[in-house]
Specification:
Chain A: InterPro entries: DUF1800. Chain A: It holds the Pfam family DUF1800. Chain B: InterPro entries: DUF1501, TAT_signal, TAT_signal_bac_arc. Chain B: Pfam families: DUF1501. The structure holds 2 protein chains of 2 kinds. Chain A has a two-stranded antiparallel sheet with strand order 1-2. In chain A, strands 3-4 form a two-stranded antiparallel ribbon. Chain A contains 23 helices and 6 strands. In chain A, helix 1 (3-14) runs parallel beside helix 3 (32-40). Chain A folds into 3 domains: 3-37 and 294-426, no CATH class; 65-236, no CATH class; 239-289, no CATH class. By secondary structure, chain A is mainly alpha-helical. Chain A is globular and about 75 Å long. By secondary structure, chain B is α/β, with parallel strands linked by helices. Chain B has one domain (40-198, 231-409): 3-Layer(aba) Sandwich (Alkaline Phosphatase, subunit A), CATH 3.40.720. Chain B has 13 helices and 12 strands. In chain B, the strands form 2 sheets. In chain B, strands 1, 5, 6, 7, 8, 9, 10, 11 and 12 form a 9-stranded mixed beta sheet that branches. A 3-stranded antiparallel beta sheet of chain B has the order 2-4-3, with no helix packed on it. In chain B, a hairpin with a 5-residue loop joins strand 3 (95-96) and strand 4 (102-103). In chain B, helix 3 packs parallel to helix 9 (218-241), helix 5 (108-115) packs across helix 11 and helix 10 runs parallel beside helix 11. Chain B starts with 8 loop residues before the first helix and ends in a 12-residue tail after the last helix. The chains are: A mainly alpha, B alpha/beta. At the A-B interface, helix 4, helix 6, helix 10, strand 5 and helix 17 of A face helix 1, helix 2, helix 6, strand 7 and helix 8 of B.
Chain lengths: 427, 421
């Protein structure tokens, strides 16, 4: 196997959303050092977004206003989805965009329960802002995130009636990792998180001192009447946090099957809690060239990579219903993770059902693309041409012969190429 | 251009009932590629339907942590009422099962099956050192091991004892639950509505594209296998789904107009019933219902969910009567944990420990098994575990799947003798 191709393909598909036409070849010519630097180069970029608004209280059922209210809500939710998918495709900063996606799966919050688009959009802005920033500041911002609070019943957590949903997940899934705290820590942390109200429709948080438990709590060995900010700083300062975040980044970017090695360089790199330092270390790690570390592209990653290769903008596809339907059937809709643990990995995306939907989706996308460039290549060279175009390491003899059989039909050729095991899996 | 809105009422308003579930199964290993010819499997499925009388297991997973105390309710215990004001039921609405336990008011269907001795309720089920994380606890239940990082599921290890066959175990939905992941082979996933086999030129090309390749790494091999299985599973299953469900004439009237309910679970079980009736060579089916994580406003939500469970399972068994296979089927219903005895004040309950497990079917010896956990002798505020879930698994492996439990669970002594020999 050509190791430069392997590493280059991984840099494009894992730390970004796959190459645009010509980018892969150009990266190969520039060499790995330059490609790594390019991946890590983040340009200042203003994100343009539609305006998402607080629709105010929901009108009574059966009132005349409810129809327009619901219609506007659905429209904004569609816009939100299309806006983000477009960002993934057109971004000039693939790493930042990919890290935003990673953090969405980390602080996994779903529109399914939050219901209103504004809090979800605001959360996305926060995920973007800290995507490669400082995790200590990030964690503080996320505690004050309305969507996360609504998702985990934060507004229901009061001195009289503590609710442990947020406190448990913040330790288990967001900051420390499972079993790195006691059940008592969960209960005590919930007490220190009391004292907030959250507006459902806007996600705005406000303090409510009479709901606040001002008593002393003990969390991971530290006692006192701590504010949420103090106790979150205490959590982020734990050694388990320094290990947990590198573990999660490794799990999504390198391998979900092989655990992060003990004393891996990313752990010491994360001492300052700077996310970009962690990712930079990982990008330069030998793990990136180990053939054991293959991963499956999730449905959204696959779709966005196809759109980038084919110059398709999700918002410009002829049917939103169709797009939504395919992503839903493939079980991955941005803003709707299946639960607070985020999306599954690898084999979970490889059922025979998803093979069917992926093929139908691919057929549709290939029919919408302008394939004149591929058609201009001599039929005999097309299969090899696709390797660099799509950023694939190599074709197996199996796939090579399957593709050659349909090389005279560019649309069919492309459909099969993006459904091949070599494309579905990041080798 | 944006077409008409597609967010459903459920996605916008009823999240607690529809929240899709999947559990993170950390460290799930890529199974080594199962090399099978499509024709072999297709041939087997059409020419050797499951012989009548072969026991079939249907596993119903309730994701989110079902509140056992509001399912099988200690309705004469004053501590029960005192511990959870606002989320208890009026005693007169319940279905008494014994002097001190009664079923949730939404479970009339299960109650009628109980009355004919077709329901076993195993009380206080859990495992040592309960884990209150959804993900870890579900991983423990599905792996059948107290190490949540174990990389195979209990039914996946059972599959490993079986001949290679993608039809042996099928999960409804497009994502495979970890319980069906084995080392040598895993179960297949089947979406509602069946699969469409690619045909014509593209079908032939897909068949070539999904052939085994010696250079595939394990995930690429799995990707190829999933496409290959598409042909075998779908060519057998799709025609069957087009048939109307065979329904027995003596279908009891259950829950009035709800009998044909449109919850997702009802659809899943309807498909399973049709496939079983048609003779699919499948011994294990997996279905699921999510939304049981009732931290807030529990009573109404849980009632609706349990009502869906009760109605769907009852309808499912009735549907099978005409096929002659209803007596072959055993349904196992479990959740990753129960919930705290004391309410949390958002009129909900937080994560707890032990809960009841249901076994339903003609082969079940109806009645109670395991001790009811005491409401006074709590462990950290939670119910004590009185039965290990692996006791139930061991019995199912031996009495339903006819496989030595040791092959799946290692040496395991406990049994829950709720299945007739």
């Amino acid at each position: 196997m050509d190791m430069q191709r392997l590493e280059t393909a991984r840099l494009f598909h894992r730390f970004g959303y796959g190459p645009k036409p010509g980018e892969f070849r150009s990266a190969l010519n520039q060499g790995l050092t330059a490609t790594r630097q390019n991946v890590l180069k983040i340009d200042a970029q203003t994100i343009v977004a539609p305006e998402f608004t607080d629709p105010g209280p929901r009108p009574a059922p059966n009132s005349p206003d409810i129809v327009e209210y619901s219609r506007s809500l659905r429209y904004q939710n569609q816009l939100l989805l299309l806006w983000w998918l477009d960002q993934m495709v057109v971004t000039a900063n693939p790493l930042n965009e990919k890290m935003t996606w990673f953090w969405h799966g980390h602080w996994a919050t779903s529109l399914g329960k939050v219901r209103y688009p504004l809090p979800m959009y605001n959360q996305n802005v926060t995920l973007r802002k800290y995507a490669l920033g400082n995790f200590a500041e990030f964690a503080q911002a996320m505690f004050l995130d309305g969507a996360l609070q609504l998702w985990l019943d934060g507004g229901e957590n009061t001195v009289k009636a503590p609710n442990e949903n947020l406190s448990r997940e913040i330790m288990e899934l967001f900051i420390l990792g499972v079993n790195r705290y006691s059940e008592n820590d969960v209960k005590e942390l919930a007490r220190s998180f009391t004292g907030y109200r959250v507006s459902r429709t806007s996600g705005v948080m406000s303090t409510a001192s009479r709901l606040r438990d001002n008593g002393s709590v003990t969390v991971l060995g530290k006692s006192g009447a701590m504010s949420p900010q103090e106790v979150i700083a205490h959590l982020v300062a734990q050694d388990s946090c320094q290990r947990f975040i590198p573990e999660r980044v490794w799990y999504r970017f390198i391998s979900s099957a092989n655990p992060l090695p003990e004393n891996h360089s990313t752990i010491s790199a994360f001492a300052t809690r700077d996310i970009k330092t962690l990712v930079t270390t990982l990008i330069n790690d030998p793990a990136l060239s180990s053939i054991d570390n293959s991963i499956v592209k999730s449905p959204v990653e696959w779709f966005v990579a196809v759109c980038r290769a084919l110059n398709l903008a999700p918002s410009q596809l002829p049917s939103f219903t169709k797009l939504y339907g395919y992503l839903e059937k493939l079980s991955q809709l941005p803003f709707q993770p299946p639960n607070v643990g985020g999306w599954p990995t690898d084999q979970a995306w490889l059922s025979s059902a998803s093979a069917q939907y992926r093929l139908a989706f691919a057929t549709w996308l290939a029919s919408l693309a302008n394939l004149s460039e591929l058609a201009a290549v001599a039929p005999n060279n097309r299969v090899e041409y696709l390797l660099d175009w799509l950023g694939i390491v190599e074709w197996s003899a199996r796939t090579d012969s399957a593709l050659r059989a349909v090389r005279d039909n560019p649309q069919r050729l492309l459909t099969l190429a993006i459904c091949s095991p070599e494309y579905v899996v990041s080798a | 251009m944006i077409e008409k809105p597609v967010f459903s009422h459920e996605q916008l308003g009823m999240s607690v009932f529809t929240r899709r579930q999947f559990l993170k199964f950390s460290g799930v290993a890529a199974t080594s590629a199962t090399i099978l010819s499509v024709d072999d499997v297709a041939h087997a499925a059409t020419t050797r339907p499951l012989p009548l009388g072969t026991p079939i297991l249907v596993v119903l997973s309730l994701y989110g942590g079902n509140d056992g105390l509001n399912t099988v309710i200690p309705f004469k215990d004053s501590i029960y009422y005192a511990s959870r004001p606002g989320i208890t039921y009026k005693p007169e609405t319940l279905f008494p099962l014994s002097d001190d336990l009664a079923l949730n008011p939404s479970m009339s269907g299960i109650k009628s099956l109980w009355d004919t001795q077709k329901v076993a309720i195993v009380r206080g089920v859990g495992y040592p050192k309960p884990d209150r994380s959804h993900f870890s606890s579900m991983a423990i239940w599905q792996s059948g091991s107290s190490q949540s990082s174990r990389d195979t599921g209990w039914l996946g290890r059972w599959l490993d004892t079986q001949p290679l066959d993608p039809m042996s175990a099928i999960s409804l939905g497009s994502i495979l639950p970890p319980m069906l992941v084995g080392k040598k082979q895993s179960g297949s996933a089947l979406p509602l509505g069946g699969l469409n086999v690619p045909s014509g030129v593209i079908g032939a090309a897909c068949a070539r594209l999904s052939a085994p390749s010696p250079t595939d790494n394990s995930l690429m091999a799995a990707a190829a296998t999933s496409m290959r299985n598409l042909f075998s599973v779908s060519s057998n299953v799709t025609p069957i789904l087009a048939k109307p469900a065979p329904v027995a004439q003596d279908l009891p009237a259950i829950d009035g107009g709800n009998a044909g309910g449109d919850t997702n679970l009802a659809q899943q079980l309807n498909v399973v019933a049709k496939l079983i009736a048609a003779g699919a060579p499948t011994k294990v089916w997996s279905v699921s219902l999510g939304g049981f994580d009732t931290h807030a406003n529990e009573a109404n939500a849980q009632s609706l969910l349990l009502g869906a469970v009760s109605t769907s399972v009852t309808t499912f068994l009735s549907q099978l009567k005409a096929s002659g296979r209803s007596k072959d089927v055993t349904v196992l219903i479990y959740s990753e944990f129960g919930r705290r005895v004391k309410a949390n004040g958002s009129e909900g309950t937080d994560h707890g420990t032990a809960g009841p497990v249901f076994l339903v079917g003609d082969r079940v010896q109806g009645g109670f098994y395991g001790d009811q956990p005491s409401l006074t002798q709590l462990v950290d505020g939670d119910l004590a575990v009185t039965t290990d879930f692996r006791d139930i698994y061991a019995t199912i492996l031996e009495k339903v799947l006819m496989t030595p439990a040791e092959k799946v669970l290692g040496v395991w002594k406990g049994r829950t003798n709720a299945i007739k020999s």
